[in-house]
Design a protein that fits this description.
By secondary structure, this protein is of the alpha+beta class. The chain contains 13 helices and 5 strands. The longest helix is centred in the middle third of the chain and has 18 residues.
Length: 281
């Protein structure tokens, strides 16, 4: 491993966004060879030697303790998702061989029954690569009415929400603030790639998007890390018009990487009326 590893790239990107004055350090002169903090400055803030921090960033020191990682995270002022991502990357860096390929994902039958019963709430289940494993009628109508409702049933035809956001014109037009949705997708993919290091299909998805979408390539290079647990999106739906929905993502117990995603609107609002109207189509 070298500085081009995911761990090294992430640490460098986060170090580059901090200025000495941001963290209470003096700035000596205006000419600095690197953007942001120097390695020795970051090491000082984290309470470790400059040499040790350099070895971590360059991948020459495997298995840094959780305490050291937390000290680095605090020095870099990482958010909670970024801190967890740092630990995931460090854990992955300690493995010399890739784990076995994960099995094909399937939606649990009981969860599929739950989706069907949620007639008033648009919902879907996505896997570790953001593939749609199942959706209910309302979820399909809200997010992908232009696609075959049965497409998630076959792994060969499953829609992928990340791919749709960047490469599908309908999905891009659906989100009024597409930039915000795009950042959320990229930030979540960063988390997933660190947690599922041996998933070649996930790595292939990232490569495909980087080639096919300049927007994705630019965002990916920024090392965005963002949890998708809850967010609010303004939509421009082709059938029911403009509405605002709250998206909540709940991890599915016992299913690695699978998430139940729901979309709701404030009761009594025009957005709630739009969701009710959507169920009639």
């Amino acid at each position: 491993m070298d500085v081009r590893s995911p761990l090294g790239e992430f640490l460098q990107a986060r170090r580059a966004r901090l200025r000495p004055e941001d963290v209470g350090l003096p700035r000596y002169g205006d000419r600095r060879r690197v953007p942001g903090l120097r390695r020795e400055e970051l090491a000082l803030l984290a309470g470790v030697s400059a040499g040790y921090y350099t070895r971590i960033e360059q991948g020459q020191s495997q298995g840094a303790s959780p305490e050291v990682l937390d000290a680095i995270a605090t020095a870099m002022r990482l958010t909670t998702p970024e801190r967890e991502h740092l630990h995931d990357l460090s854990a992955s860096a300690g493995h010399r061989s890739a784990p076995p390929a994960p099995p094909v994902e399937e939606c649990d039958p009981d969860l599929r029954t739950l989706l069907t019963a949620m007639t008033d709430v648009p919902a879907l289940v996505v896997g570790r690569r953001n593939d749609v494993l199942a959706w209910n009628r309302a979820g399909h109508a809200l997010l992908a009415g232009h696609l075959d409702p049965a497409s998630p049933d076959d792994p060969r035809t499953r829609p992928n929400m990340s791919r749709m956001v960047f490469l599908d014109a309908h999905t891009r037009a659906l989100y009024r603030n597409w930039d915000s949705k795009a950042r959320a997708v990229v930030g979540n993919l960063r988390i997933m790639t660190a947690r599922h290091r041996g998933d070649a299909a996930l790595a292939g998805l990232v490569g495909e998007l980087a080639i096919e979408s300049p927007d994705f390539a630019t965002l990916w290079a920024g090392h965005i890390v963002q949890s998708c647990a809850r967010d609010v999106f303004d939509l421009a739906h082709p059938l029911v018009g403009e509405l605002t929905v709250t998206q909540q993502s709940l991890r599915v117990p016992g299913e690695s990487g699978q998430v139940l995603v729901t979309m709701t609107a404030e009761p009594g609002t025009s957005s709630a009326e739009a969701l009710t109207l959507l169920r009639t189509f």
